[in-house]
Amino acid sequence: MSGLRAHLGLARSLAIYYGRPWRQRRLSRFYAGLLAPGDLAFDIGAHVGNRSRALRAAGARVVALEPQAPFAGFLRLTLPRDITLVEAAAGARPGTAELAVSRLHPTVSSLAGLPAAVGGAEGFAHVRWDARQRVAVTTLDALIAAHGLPAFVKIDVEGFEAEVLAGLSQPVPLLAVEYLPQLPGAARAAVQRLAALGPYRFNAVAGERPAFLWERWKTPGDTLAWLAGRTPAEGSGDLYARRDSA
To answer: pTM, whole model, 2 decimals?
Structure first.
């Protein structure tokens, strides 16, 4: 994906995710509280690599997935050599798929039919998906076969989270999936898929703030009820799913 608009989009993402260095340090400390040194982590939807770098700074071994150009190229040139980069998307089955790209707002590029689902909705009225890119698709099961069982999987794929989880056939200790109030069905499907994989409890993080909202982790049912009450004005964030050893 070449051209001025694509490179302006890259510059915009770099400013968003690296323009406030203290956020990166806080994120690393947050991950260090969740992972042990040497734990394996998958960063699905690495974008500009800020999460991959924060996980690495927390002591994790990182496998980063990013299919979108020019972001995959940027990561290939700039990621530390001990982070494994896979230039592909993740989905329910291996193959290829068409990525809907917003060149000026590439954080919302998606395999999930996002333009039709949220075009014109609050928070998305200014976004135009003005390009398409054919990308390779792998699965979480394939990544596990190649790299081992991760302690943590972060999935930020703009409404495609449940499809990514459909490519996982076993529970992992900890996962994080993005929730978008404009796509309540996507978050609901992700929670239901995780509940089918194993006994999980859930917690939430608002936006980019690295802190849990709830003192106690919630059941799938309570989490679904919370999601149902979210509005676009309250913004997006991440749902963390922790396997319940009890």
So the answer is: 0.93
